[in-house]
């Protein structure tokens, strides 16, 4: 019995020693940043801007930092690609003061020194202390008379009109006049 076990172990051992172990490389970074708008009022004649922290990403293997030689960020809403800036083996996207429409999901792709491409997702959230949502109502705080006017909420979605049909984009608009008293 022990000879049979020894033969089995000897025949399995070379397979275990020669099998290539794949150790995953993880993309790391600031997974989410919060954009702070200058105000909560924007309209077709007034662009709403926000201060947005830099996005960054890098790579690591078994918890150890790996230098990257190139990186880029893709805004998923429109596919626009932004080249990153290398600094200390990481890639940065400097945004600063920008239109709040840059908020949303981004994908970071980095190329490590071994020429392998790795990617991860990042999100820019827009937050305002003057806006709350209670699940049913949008609550605007600290309004002044200059904030009076028409507000529009736009809902976007795509879905087929019939089973196995093509997906068709749809929009719903809700306009509300706001008076400040």
Description:
The protein is built from one helix and 16 strands. The longest helix has 17 residues, at 2-18. By secondary structure, it is mainly beta. It folds into two domains: 23-129, Immunoglobulin-like (Sandwich); 143-181, no CATH class. The protein starts with a helix and ends with a strand.
Structural features:
181 residues, mainly beta, Immunoglobulin-like, 2 domains, 5-stranded antiparallel beta sheet, 9% helix, globular, disordered N terminus, signal, Protein CBR-ZIG-7, ZIG1/7_N
CATH architecture term of the largest domain? Sandwich
Shape: globular
Oligomer: single chain
In round numbers, the mean pLDDT is: 79
Query: Could you give a short account of the major beta sheet?
Result: 7 strands, mixed
Strand tally is 16
Q: Major sheet: order of its strands?
A: 7-6-11-12-2-3-10
SSE order: HEEEEEEEEEEEEEEEE
Low-confidence segments, ≥5 residues, pLDDT <50? 1-19
What is the distance, rounded to the nearest whole angstrom, between the alpha carbons of the first and last residues? Answer: 93 Å
Based on secondary structure, the structural category is mainly beta
Keywords: Signal
Signal peptide: 1-19
Protein name: Protein CBR-ZIG-7
Organism: Caenorhabditis briggsae
């Amino acid at each position: 019995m022990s000879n049979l076990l020894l033969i089995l172990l000897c025949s399995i051992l070379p397979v275990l020693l020669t099998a290539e172990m794949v150790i995953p490389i993880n993309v790391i970074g600031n997974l989410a940043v919060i954009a702070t708008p200058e105000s909560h009022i924007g309209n077709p004649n007034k662009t709403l801007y926000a201060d947005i922290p830099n996005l960054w990403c890098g790579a690591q293997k078994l918890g150890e930092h790996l230098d990257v030689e190139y990186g880029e960020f893709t805004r998923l809403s429109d596919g626009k690609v932004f080249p990153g800036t290398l600094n200390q083996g990481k890639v940065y996207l400097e945004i600063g003061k920008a239109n709040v429409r840059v908020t949303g999901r981004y994908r970071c792709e980095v190329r490590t020194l071994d020429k392998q491409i790795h990617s991860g997702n990042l999100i820019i959230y827009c937050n305002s202390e003057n806006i709350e949502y209670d699940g049913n109502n949008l609550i605007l705080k600290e309004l002044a008379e200059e904030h009076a006017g028409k507000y529009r909420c736009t809902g976007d979605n795509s879905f087929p009109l019939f089973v196995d049909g093509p997906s068709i984009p749809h929009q719903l608009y809700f306009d509300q006049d706001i008076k400040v008293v």
